[in-house]
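Field reference: sequence -> structure
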Amino acid sequence: MKLMVDADDPPTAVLAEGRELRFPRFRLTVVDGPDRGAILDGAGAELVIGSAAGNDLALTDSAVSRCHVAIAPAARGFQIRDLGSTNGTQVSGVTIESAYILPGQVIAIGNTKLRFEARGGEEREALSPETRWGRALGTSDAMRRLFAMLPRLAASDATILLEGETGTGKGLLAAAIHEASPRAKGPMIVVDCGSIPPSLIESELFGHEKGAFTGAIAARAGAFEAAAGGTIFLDEIGELPLDMQPKLLRALEERVIKRIGGNESVKLDIRILAATNRELRAEINRGRFRSDLYYRLNTFRLRVPPLRERRADIALLVAHFYGQLAPGEAPPAELLVDFARHDWPGNVRELRAAVERTVLLGDPAVWREISEDGPLAASAPAAGDPAASFRAAKERAVAEWERDYVRSLVTSHKGNVSAAARAVRMDRNHLRELLVRHKIRTEER
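Structure field:
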């Protein structure tokens, strides 16, 4: 069974005091190409079209990429996204990366054309009446849609793939799923696939016997063994080296592993959660991620939306962080107005850092002065401006140094973010946040 859920706010009316969503039904019909006549019906779930067997519509057209295009409900209608295909996607003759699609329009991928049509009727989906699940908070439709389905998923033993940008809270949701599961009394072992040197990843996952390689002075159980009776969380699974992926796939399918240098098979009794900030389907098209591993992980796919797509949650989150950092204090109204206008490229993690900075400095105006992306960015003072406050000038100077340092760091490692982070003993996720904050683009590897 496969369920793919996109947590974007859907194109729908909200019913019954906000507890139900409506999704118009649509149909995709192949009108030209090798698979002419094929039909795919959809509504509330994301649908993926490509040449790989695991897609919702698998085409035999050799000019279509393995995972070519996705269609999903979004805030203003149904959104179509090209998934890094080789030959691109056109809608009504216009090449697109992402667009909203209307009934009657024709999608061209490879040598295939599909017509998008309204089918009539609708599907309904419940929203949770709660504004939190575990430690995750949200009043937006996007989050309450997740909260409605998470208890059901947590109660199962199914593999879940969490997708979303850095800082959206994928790790927090993974922990909440474990804590609400029948395995809650067992361990939750977290493996950051991007922070482990490639030469050590197999040992970290599967363990090793004494003498298996230079430096193996004692036998050691790996993460899979350590998670017995509980959950293993494979964070940043998209960073897993390509040569390691078939070994992981075999372990997931057979539920058996062997330590490096060992002959004894170890049976696994674990629940598997994985997370990534990458678009794995685009990585499949680039040859960086195996499609068979993706489909094995993709039993249930949950997309955690970025903060800019759920601005209704900002006030709730800021109040929550204020309660932690400054008990008894309420966030200033002007701060909430500024925060609501910001795009938060670092998502909830960046929002918390901004609240913490504001609380520690005791001056909400500092946020406006030092935010390069905020509404008053044009008036932010230069580091040497004698008219600026000391705090604002200092923050600006640190930000400029930080930007230059990070740019030089990733350039010296040819854009390899994981290698750059390891070289300076920095958490890779923090380095990514700095890249986003300073708008430094890199072909991340």
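Note: The longest strand covers residues 112-126.
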